[in-house]
Each structure stands twice: as C-alpha cells, then as structure tokens.
Task: structure prediction
Amino acid sequence: MKKNLTIVAVSFFVIVSAIFFSSCLKDTCKSSYTYSYYIPVYKTTAEVRANIKSNSPQEVVNPGKIVLLGNYIFLNEIDKGIHVIDNTNPASPRNVAFISIPGNEDLAVKGNTLYADLYTDLVTLDITDPLNVSVKKYNEGVFPYRNYGNGFYADSSKIIVDWIKKDTIIIQNCGGGYAFPYYPSAYMDFSTVQTNASSGISNSGSPVGKGGSMARFAIVNNYLYTVDDNNLNIFNISNSSEPAFLGNVSVDYHVETIYPFENKLFIGSNNGVFIYNIASSPENPVKSGEFTHARSCDPVIADGQYAFVTLHSGTTCLGYNNELDVVKLNNFVDASLVKIYNLTSPQGLSKDGTLLFICDGTDGLKIFDASDVSALKLIKQFSNIETYDVIAFNNIALVVAKDGLYQYDYSNENNIHLVSKIGLSNK
Amino acid sequence: MKTLIFILIISFLINFSAYSQKNKIRFQSINQFAMVGGESQVNSAYQTINGIRFSNWFSGIGIGVDNYRYRTLPLFFDGRWYFGYEKRGFIYGDIGYNFPMKDKPGKEIYYYDSYHFTGGVYTDFGIGYQVPLYKKSSMLFSLGYSSKKMTNRVGVNTGVNIICYNYGGCPVSYENYDFSFNTMILKAGLVF
Result:
C-alpha cells in the first residue's frame, strides 16, 4: 500500500511540475536570408548613343537572339548589345566586334541595315561595314512595354547600361519557431520583352537575315514586324534607314514569338498560334487563322503545309506541357492538330528540307527526319549541351546553348557533326 | 597481427566479465515513452537507452523519436546517477545530435519550393524516480528539460527574369531558419 502511494505521489508531482514549467519555455527561431539585389548603372542618353558603334570584340557571356546574314552572325548579348561574328569559315568563326546597345534583346537585319531595340527605342544601324557600323535613326518610345520588377522605377532621364549585383544577409527573429519566408524588395531586371531572335524568309529587295524561332522581330519585304507582350507592331522600312512606325494590332496576352512564312505571320503566344495575313495589306495584318493549345511557351515555325510548335513548361510561361505539336495548316485558315510528340523541355526549332532540328533543353539538340510528320524519326541527338535556339541554314545548324554557340554540319544527314563552338566567358 | 588482436579482445572480455561479476556491473536497457510540452504544442517521444549500470552510475547510448514540432531522431549519450533510498532517485543528462526526419532537398522547380532540414545539438537533463517491479526490472518516471536545435534551409523560387525564361530555370533564393525548441519532457518507462 505504501509502495503504491509513493508511486502515485511521485507521479502527481512530476505531472504538475511538467505542466507548470512547460508554459515557461519558449521556442526560438532566427532566420537568415541571403538575397541579391541589383543597382542600376546609368548613363546619359548622349553617352549611350556615342558608344553605339563597332567596339572591340567582347566575350560572349549571356547569349540571346541570333541572326545569320551572309558570312556574319549577329548574336545578341542580352541587355548589352550585339556581337558581330565573322563566320566565313564555320569551322573557325571569329568574334570581330561588339556593338554596345544597352537593353538590347531583339534584332533583325535586312541588307546593310540592322534594327535593334534599345530598351523602349528602336535603333537603326548601317552595317555595310560590320566593323564600322553607324547609327541612322532612333525611333524613340516605340516599345513602351519595358518595366522592372518589385516596385523599381528607373530614372527616365537616363539609360540603364548595367546592373551591379549586391549580396545581402538579413538576420531576424522569425518568432515562435514558425518559418515564413521573407521576400525582400530586390531590383531585378524584369522585362516583359523576353524572347529571342529573328526569322528570315524570301524577300524582295535586299537579303534578310535569317533568325531563330524565338524571334520577336521579323522582316517581310519592306516591313519590319515586332511583337511585344500583347501587340504586333508594324514599321515601314521602304527607306531602310528611316523606319516609320505605322501602328500596332492587338494579338493576345503574353505574345512570345513571330515567324514569317509566305506572306503570313505566325505569332506564338502562351495560349496558341495566331496566323496573320499580310499579302493584301502588309500595313494592316489581318488574322486569318489560329490554333490554341494548353498554356505554355511556344515557339513556332512553319512550312507550306504544317506548323511545328514546341511547348515547354515552367518559368514565366506556366503550363505543364513539354511537347512538339504538329499542326496541319489547311490553307492557313483552319489549323488542325496532326500529332503530339512528347519531349523534355523543347524550345527553339528549325527546319531545313526534311530535317527538323529541336532544342530540347537539357536533352540537347535533337534532329528528326520529318519526311512523314505523323511519324518523326530521331536520327541524331547531341545530348551533352543545354540548347535554346537553332537556325538550320545552308547545311549548317547554328545552335545557341547555355554554354556557347555551336555549329553543326548536316550536309550528310548520316554524319551530322560539330564543326565549331564559341564558348562563353565565365563572368 | 589478426591473431594478436583476437587474443586481446577475448582476454578483455574474459577479464571484464570477471570484473563485472565481482563489482556488480551489468547491462541495462531503459525504454521510455515521453510527453514533450513546450510553447507550441504537447507531443510524444520514445527512447531506448542501452548501457552499463555500475554502482550508483549508469552510462549508455540512446536513440529515439521526438515528435515535437518537427519529427527528429535523437542519438545521444546518457549518463545518470542514482541516490536516496535503495538508490531509487536519479538525475540524468543526455547530450547528442538529433537527425531530422523530414526533408525535401533539391527540388527547386517552378511552383515548387524546397526545404532542407539539418539537425543539431540535442540535450535533455532532469530528475527521476525508479520503482522496483520484479527481479531486476523497474518502472521509472522522470521530469526534465529538453532542447533540440535544427536548421531548415528553405528555397524560394524568385520567379521572373530574362535568364529564367531563356534557360528554363528561375533563380532560387534561400533562407535559413535556425530553430531551438525548448521543452519539458515527462517520461515513463521500464528498465530491464
């Protein structure tokens, strides 16, 4: 009996003690947040314009869109300018000059004239001598859809030419031991003009640079077409050095790419592909057909009968599809889906003859025999690179990858091989 | 060389056995269920401690599960000193490392943030009472203060910028949360 009483007494004592003392104890939590923010480096408009010329070549750091014309490759360095690469010998391309154009993401070339965006402006350059380019005109404020994230407003009287990255650590109590991520206000370069490069078709007059499927600038005859987040913008370039902004046409939300083919403009948006007819009135493109798909990023190319649309998930495009859609154009009026091919993370694509080149993200470059679009055959894959966009032209496939610019010879489809690579700087 | 080591081990075990019988050293297993209470909640824990009892002392290695806030697996050294009538009272102290049992590292993709827990120091000390049951088995109760530390590295996708779009990978920001959970721990268990 005494033994049992002892057990009960001890038990009672410890339980009461536990209840009493536990309320006195506190959990603690300290959070340390490491984040980077960017401080803009400004220059005056005069300073920036004085530097838009052929400067000494710079290393490729962050390649964007690309245009191929004659023996030259014009490669965008995102937000910095354009590398001029002499590709006379594809086995040994030479980086010969750099045109400094702050805020540049898109470009198109026709004859001896290069058109590029400079943040909200369009700059027209004479590239007769690529080593000594000169500015012909600025069309100011024609690309107004340029902004920055997280509440940052740029000094509108100057031009941002660079961003300086700063790393910061914040240590604070997170209270009660509960973890709530802290989101600081960082100045990130946040552009709604986000995709790459320019396409080429047969044009009257001067030759037009051939661009990739991620293009947002396209030239058809005497017109330069550009897309921004919502609109198709039209410029008359009859006088190549004096582009005239004619106006714009509302297309869709989240427009990404433009691809010209046979007096048609194929415009890719998050929601689908829109076909605009420019045959009868190139100054007033008229929508003639569309093909909608699941929300995703979707570069598009076309030939006479079919359009090839790659959808990839993630990033700003949302969506969950990673596939190639082959669409029958049906006279460009009533497009219909032929077949879907599952891929890893397809982005840019290009077609030359029966060969279809697809940049499949981390899966590298895939080359298909597209003789039968309902039964594509993979004939070659270069899987050791992370690819973004490709131009297949004249037996050379020019591939923009995360670590450089590659060129593949596909003159013999049984022996497609790498001929050169321009690597990136590790800056 | 191997033969020599084998002979040394056998000799040690024979001598230790003889010494143990003479000095009443014996193996003991302590198995406990616990209620852990702190600022945030009351939850459960389990422990098994196995070691050697010698005179007033016990020393062993313990492992358990602690469900307070984030489930962890503490691995610790346990030492205790017995006192009082029939050496039924005791004070104890544990120190060790608690391993997190919740983790999701390296999953930074769009719309899917990551967390990565790492463990930290585990301590527990207190006082208890042991009631003999049958032969060498006993029931024990104890009340103590326990603290466990751990860190959670949370990866948050920062969303949109040009690199993110071009290369299919958005930058991820990381935030470290250093937790210190302080609790009262009330245990009941059996000793064999």
In short: Residues 108-112 of chain B have pLDDT under 50 and may be disordered.
